[in-house]
Amino acid sequence: MDLRENEKKLEAAKEAAGGGELLVVETDIVGAEALGFRVPNLAEWKRYRAEASDPNPAVKSGAATPLVFSCCVFPTRQELERIVEAHPGIVETCIGELVEHAGAARAKKVRKL
After folding, report:
1. How many beta carbons lie within 10 A of that of residue 67, not counting itself?
2. Along the 113 residues of the chain, how does pLDDT read in single tens digits?
3. How far is CA 72 from the centre of its chain?
4. Domain residues for 50?
5. Phi, psi (5° rounding) for residue 34?
6. Which of 5, 71, 81, 86 has its CA 20 to 30 A from that of 108?
């Protein structure tokens, strides 16, 4: 898929998701050249943080996948499932960016007074 076609589909996905800020993660994986994510809502964020800090390693290790899937607006869920099945590490690539997109690493300046 060429860049212009991806951009058109991302714009359409952005509008369908309410028109808010859209995070685009670009990869060199065929079929996953551009993935679009909306900002997680508060309930999704709380669930992710609870699972990510769970002492059970099985719960903790699976925390990223539901957030990535719930926030992905492009490609379709079925396409994302296919991509993750073939390239499971893409979840780790996306979660880091998605966490920042949610505002977790956006401190402009930190200082003591």
Report:
1. 24
2. 566 787 888 888 888 888 788 899 988 888 788 899 999 999 999 999 999 999 999 999 999 999 999 999 999 999 999 999 999 999 999 999 999 988 887 666 767 77
3. 6
4. 3-101
5. -145, 125
6. 71
**Helix pair 42-52, 64-71: axis angle to 10 deg:** 160
Residue 86 phi, psi (nearest 5):
-80, -30
In a domain, 75, yes or no: yes
Assigned token pair, 23: 């995070």
Q: Please name the residue ranges forming H helices in the chain.
A: 3-16, 42-52, 57-61, 64-71, 77-86, 90-101
Nearest to 22 by CA among 68, 72, 64, 75: 72
Question: Which of 105, 82, 100, 72 minimizes the C-alpha distance to 30?
Answer: 82
The model's pTM is 0.84
113 occurs within a structural domain: no
CATH of residue 26's domain is 3.30.2220.10
